[in-house]
Amino acid sequence: MDSDSEGNAEDVSRSRRTRIIQWAGSIATVFVLVVGVAFPPLFGLETDMQLVLTIFLMAIILWVTKPVPFTISSVLVMSLLFGLGITSSFDDAVSGFASELVFFLFLLILLGNTIGKTGLDDRAARQLLSAQSTPRRSVRSLSTNLFALSFFMPSAVARTVTFIPLVKRVTTLYGLGAKSNFEKSSFFILGHVNPIASMALMTGGGMAIITSSVIQSSVQSITWVEWAVYMIPPVGLLYAIAAVSAAKLYPVNDSMTIGDTQSTDGGETQSVDDELEADPMSRDERIVAVVMGATVVAWIVGSFVGIPTILPAVVAVVVLSLPGIQIITPSDIRSMSWGILFVIGAMFSILEVMETTGTLTFIVDTITHLVPFGTMALWQVVAILLTIAIVMRTFFSTASAAITVVLPIVLEFGSVLGINQLYLAFSILTIIGSTTFLPFNTTAVLVSFDQGPLSMRDVFTFGLLTMVFALAVIPLAWLFYWPFVDAIL
C-alpha cells in the first residue's frame, strides 16, 4: 500500500472515531439534561443547584466531544440558564460576556494575527540559521527565537505554524531524514515547549489572560509588570529545562553545518545564505512592529500609572484599522475563531450563576467534609488540588478552556482552606500549561503531531516529562521565589 493510500485510510479512520465521539457526546448530553431536569434534587442539592450543575456538566461534555461548534454549544447552555428559570433574565444568563476578558482576548487575537499577516513571523523565523549553523545550534536558536517571539506574538499555535515549514526546510538542508533526531527534538519544542513561554506575560495568550482576569476578580489586583516579575523567572526556568530535555532526549549533531552539506552537493554554499536572507521590511511590517512595540511599552508604563491593560490593545487595533493603514480589515474579523471567545463567555456566565446560587460553595464544602484536608500539611493539600487540575486538564482540547473551568473552583478551595490564592493561581496555570497527554489537549501539540514525526507515545512521554518539570518548578517558586517577590513589591 502506498503512502497516499495509507494516509487516506488513516483520515477515514480518524473521521469515523470523531463521529463516534460526537454521537456519544450528543447522547450523553441529552441523558444528563433529562436526568438533571426530571429527577428531584439529589445529594442535598437545591433545585437551582442541581439545574446549574446539570448545565455545567452538559457544557463540559459538549466542549470536549464537539458534536456542534463551540459557538452553538455555548449559546445553548446560556439559553438553558434562562430557559430553565435559573436566572431571572436572559441578560443574567449571558453576563459572562460583560467580562473585560472576552474583549481583551478578542483584541489580542487580532493583534497576533497581524504579525503573521504582514510576514513579521517569517522574518523572525529566518533568524533561525545560516550556512554556518549546525543541527544543535539550530535547535537552540529555535528555542530562543520562540521564547523571544512569545513577548510580541501571543499565540503559541501561530508560532508553531510559522516555524514548522522552516524546520522541515532546515532538515532538508542538513540532509537529515524525516524522522531524524533533529526533527523530533525540534517538533517537541514547537509543540510542547513553545506554549510554556505564553505564561510568562499577562498578555502572553489565552491561558495567562484568563488567569489574570480570575485573579483580578477573586484574589487581588495585579499589573502587567507585577505579573512579569512573578512569572518570567519560573516560566523561563521551566522553558529552559524542557527545551534542553528535548535536545537531550534526541541528541543532535554539533559538527556538521549546512555549508558542509551544500558543498558536498555541489558547492552552492552562498545560495543558502541568499535563500535565508530576509528582504527589507515592508511598510506594513514596519507599522505592525512599531505598534506592537508601543503597545508593550504602554502596558509597562500603564502598570505604574494606572492605565487599564485593555486600553493600549484597543488603541493598537484602532490604529491598525485606520483608513490608509487598514492592516486589520473586516475580513480579518470575520475569519477569527470565535469559538473560544464564546466558550469563555459561557463558562463565566455558568460560574457566576454557580456563585449566586451557592452551588460552588456547596461543592467545596461537601468535598472538604469528605476529604480530611484539615489533617493534611500544606504541600499535601496543594498536591491534591494540582492533581485535580491535571485530571480535569486531560478532558479539554485547549488549556484556556481548562483554566476557565478549573481555576475558579480550585481558588474557592484555596479560600476555604486558607491557602495563598495568588500562588495557587500561578501554580494551576503552570501545571495546566505544561501538561499534555494526548495531542488534542494542546492545539500547538496537535499541529506538530499532525505535521511532524511524533507518535502518540512520543506525545504522551514528553507531555508527562514537562508535567514533572512543572511539578518541580512550582515548589521552588512557591517556597522561595514568590515570597521574595512579595517582600520587594
TrEMBL record:
Localization (cell): Membrane
GO CC annotations on file: plasma membrane
Organism phylogeny: Archaea, Methanobacteriati, Methanobacteriota, Stenosarchaea group, Halobacteria
Sequence intervals crossing the membrane: 20-43, 49-65, 96-116, 146-167, 187-215, 227-247, 287-320, 340-364, 370-392, 399-417, 423-447, 459-481
PANTHER family hit by this protein: LOW-AFFINITY PHOSPHATE TRANSPORTER PHO91, SOLUTE CARRIER FAMILY 13 MEMBER
Matches recorded under InterPro entries: SLC13A/DASS
Name recorded for this polypeptide: SLC13 family permease
Membrane protein topology class: Multi-pass membrane protein
Superkingdom assignment: Archaea
Keywords: Membrane, Transmembrane, Transmembrane helix
Predominant place of localization: membrane
A molecular function (GO) term: phosphate transmembrane transporter activity
